[in-house]
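Quick entry between incubations.
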Amino acid sequence: MICFRLQQIFSYHEREREGFRAFAVSLSIDSNSTFTPIDHRSDGMDRRLQFAFVLLCLGLLSSTARSDLVVSKAERLVDLNSHIVRVLSKLKVENEGPDDVSEVLLALPDAQAKNLAAIRTFYSDGKLGFVLPTEPIEPKGMPSDVTYYSIALPKKLGKGKTVSLDVLSIFTRSLKPFPEEITQAESQLVVYTDNMYYTSPYPVKYQSLVFRLPGRVESYTKYPKVELVKSELRYGPFEMQPAFSYSPVVVHFENNNPFAVANELVREIEISHWGNVRVTEQYTISHGGASLKNGFSRIEYQARPYMRGASSFRVLIAKLPARAHSVYYRDEIGNISTSHLWGDSQRTQLEIEPRFPIFGGWKTTFTIGYSLPLHDFLFEADGGKRVLNMTFGCPLDEVLVEKHIVKVVLPEGSKDITVATLFPTKQSEDVKYSHLDILGRPVVVLEKDNVVPEHNLYFQVYYKFNNISLLSEPMMLIVGIFLLFVACIVYMHTDLAISKTSSSYLEKLQWEEVQATVQHIKNIFDQYLAAHDKLESSLRDLSRSGDVQSCKAARKAADAQFKELAKELKPLLTFLQSCSQASSILPKIEELVTKEKEMQEKEMAKHTTVVDCFEKKLGGKDIESRIASQQQKLTSLKQEVESLLDSISEI
Amino acid sequence: MATSKVEGSSSLRHAFGGVLSVFILLLIGVVAFSIRLFSVIKYESVIHEFDPYFNYRVTQFLSKNGIYDFWNWFDDRTWYPLGRVIGGTVYPGLTLTAGTMWKLANSLNIPLSVETVCVFTAPIFSAFAAWATYLLTKEVKGTGAGITAAAILAMVPSYISRSVAGSYDNEAVAIFALIFTFYLYIKTLNTGSLFYATLNSLAYFYMVCSWGGYTFIINLIPMHVLLCIVTGRYSSRLYIAYAPLVVLGTLLAALVPVVGFNAVMTSEHFGSFLVFIIIHVVALVYYIKGILTPRLFKVATTLVLTVGIAVCAVVVAILVALVASSPTKGWSGRSLSLLDPTYASKYIPIIASVSEHQPPTWPSYFMDINVLAFLVPAGIVACFLPLSDASSFAVLYLVTSVYFSGVMVRLMLVLAPAACIMSGIALSEAFGVLTRSMKFHITKYFECSHTEAPAKLGESTSTESSAPLENMTKSDTTEKPEVARKEKVARRKQKKEKELTENAHVKPVSAKKEKRPLVLPLEASIVSVFLLIVLGGLYVLHCVWAAAEAYSAPSIVLTSHSHDGLHVFDDFREAYAWLRHNTEVDDKVASWWDYGYQTTAMANRTVIVDNNTWNNTHIATVGTAMSSPEKAAWEIFNSLDVKYVLVVFGGLVGYPSDDINKFLWMVRIGGGVFPHIKEADYLKDGQYRVDAQATHTMLNCLMYKLSYYRFVETDGKGFDRVRRYEIGKKHFKLTHFEEVFTTHHWMVRIYKLKPQKNRIRGKSRKSKLGSKSTSSKSGGMTHKNPWN
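Done. Structure below.
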């Protein structure tokens, strides 16, 4: 787990270093470090200045409070390219006092501090880099309109020693659109206000300030030591500034980069131990820049999209983890078809286009969902626990999330849940019922306001889970279906009649009995037919072999069988005659009996004739002519008997 | 050849047949469900068209707020400022069904969304409908016919067109309810069981809940009862099948708020009451006939007839007078247009304007029921041999539904089950005869190869043919004089079951001999079977094609195939999403009524009129506004508190069912209420056009302006791809409206009413002059932030 964190830290540190070009600082002392009080009441766009003034007075009064530390060098690089403002301050702090110091204080005017989304201090000790803990504190005896952060140094700073710290602070909503409303064709102009000097509780010996701008600059605070080089605006260097020096600097410039603000993002991470992590992200996205006035004209937008509609954004890019699959992108009224997905082994990139281009003040909502393979994110931890390692932030590029809610839905039956994050979040627990749950799935809810891409760090959820519980739901289904079948079987086999004496019930019983009897009768007749067949085959044998004796024996046997069957048939027939319900089939059966009798007689007669003929050694043709009429009758009788049998069997 | 094994094999065959038919029915259900999923696969799981959006919205409300709030729901999002009492004006069957299904799934912790349930309700109920068809046809003509009919119904295009996944409309469940009600009626008629009679009235209740088409049932069944009485088929079973249905059914129907007292007060239901009286009279006559001697009975008849005719005449006169005193003669407009197909186009443009209320064309018969159209006559013939109560019902159902389908395209849906039943019977009988004769020949052939004389074939068939004929006539004659009812029922049951099993076991190959008289030559039967299979194959192909290509489009998403692949037109949802997120919650949106349901459901904004066209005046107001010049329209809309106007325009991409093509109906409906709108003003020499020759009124009306605002800038000429000519007036400005949103393909354009101008002191002329300069200023004031 420690390994995770370090990895993150490194990657971050590197990223920041890459992002911020090193800049040279010339050593020159600025003596004009006074400030000019301005009446800001008329200037609605920045109230910060006003109270910064107060702050400064206080600061001057108490500037000696901690005089033992001195910032020997402060280089600030303010990146104004996106709507998220990143300020990288490279500090060299020197201990001039006699005592060892273990913490360094950072100061931010409250006006800036309230927009602070993240602050991070990087400290490099030879090769290894660290992120130092940076916590807000409220020191005594210091100006109160300033928010302080304390950096705990990894080792104490001795007398005369220097430490290098890189402080990255990220501000949101610090770019104010001015004018606040623009038409579709206009570019968006924004104003950024800051302190020209590094706000610090310590005197600053040498400092400089660089603004990196995305485009044209409308105006900026004029000052002797300022130069505008391409897209960089440089102030300073200034030397020997007392603590809490202040001088406002205002930059008014064009910024058409997307001001995408997610007013709310709910990320639901649902773990299935069958091998899947399902992520669902619900966005409410709005454009945080200057509002659009005078409506939206499609013809202008289509004719010259980059000129007429420069301030809007059409596309957002989500960087999803590698091997993300089953991606969808929709909103409450259905799928949104304008999206592209491509990916390689490193990452999956989803380019989404909201239903309409987002202009200033416009809003839209949508949902992105995707699945990830479980084994990329879930690991075994010590003590039989499992750990889920996922990124916290939102996968969209350069989007500020005002209210970020991460819900981790653990499988049903998880216990001992703990969460580890690298920054403070509001944690709570919840229960979610899904897919045949009985107890519900424990949900860890993490909430954080003002989430910027820098918060896209890994966090861990530890929990205990028994693999056996995986089978509980399939087993439940199996048992349920099994019980259903059992119930069906029981229902089919039990007699559910309420009154056993009711006439309809008795009728039903009787009817069943009749059916059984009819079945029996049918069997008997089948045997009859079989006997007939035997006789016929004996005749065929006779014509082949001429064995008269065996033929006679066959006749005798058949005769005996006929009698036996007749005996068997008798009680059944009497039963049927006694039954009222059998009245409908009785005539048919009786007909069957008589036909069969007739057939027996004919068969016997034919048999005897043939045998006699054989004994008399008559020719084949002769025999045929003799039995022809009998044969004909016999066939028709047989047909009738069979058809009757058929009709009986179909009752 | 028959051995003792026969007994075992026959019972096994029964079991096997049972399992096989259950399995086949299961597969039919799967086919019915899955053939309707083309829309989900080709497009997405989304609600289709217009009305389903309303049903979807109601279901959402139901699932969120519960049943009691649903009954009391007054919807203020529609028909502004009138509103609509949803609970009292909607057929709740579909909504309650889907709501129950959703609740059931969620109580089992299966997290289905309401939308998913709604999308798949129709396919699920199509499977049910197929099974109900099986039951109904089984009652009419046996298992074989039942299975065939179920298979045919599972994929009949006419039904598919209304029940693809996403088509969440009343018909989806109503067709099932219709068939099931008929099944229970026939079942009651065949068994005379009160149990089934009660179930029948419950099924009827469900049908009343589901669809206004229930009047078809409550007229068809009395017609059948009357037919039975007239043809001398009166029996106590008929009484049991009918009387409880009328009493219980009417009581239950009156419980549905939307029907209420209509169940006894509108003429659609009078027929059933009349027949109810008649059946009682007939029952009385039969009873008296039973207790009186024939001579006495004759006397009584003459006496009653003379008095009765007089009384009847008086009653009928009173009834006619009562009915005639109401303006529509007690019939609702839609029902009237059923009886007189020209009624709607003459008197109610709003009914005539709906394309599904038009009479169908011949190709649509072929499209919707395909080969069934040819099989139906054969089925009718089969129903007459022999004619039973059940088969006479099937014939009557077919005949009436053919008539109704000829009146309204929509009612093709009612014809579909009837056609399927008839075709099922026809196919099953044909297959029965053909396979039987094939089997006959084959068994004969084998037998002859065993023994000697092949010449016996002719004789045996002749003897065979005489015997069963005798048999049949005997059974028919013995049946009639039977007096005791129970015995008769039992006999009927047997006979029926005999038929069933006969049909069921025609197919399984057995060594049994055949006994039917009708035997065709072997070659002919083989060829015919082959042809029938080809015919069935063609039908299946057509159905799959229809399901995949013709009826799957959700109509809110359009696609077109071009050389560079599939192109999706998702403009409607784009516009609705924009409205939903970027206007105030209480803003009113005016559009033609077609888009009302979608706007309330998808954009969640209040609309002025919607697809439930209950108030003609209100619709006419919107129609008038659309056909008025800008200023007058602005005043109308402003008086209705409208903030946005939405028009659908297809001219850029060639989407034909846009507002310009519907515009003549707006003029007609508007003109029907407000006479200053004259249709003739919009027509040039009787022709409807928007090109350079169009009339001045046409080119200055709001609809024209909103549709074509800045359209000419797209290609420089203003070529309309739907009408295929250049538009008449190309360059113009809007004075009272401003464009706020147009979708990607220009299919939906949304305009905002400019706020009222500040009154300028001075003469009117001055203010007119100043209007142009103030317009931009006032535009500046509108920003008053609609989207913050």
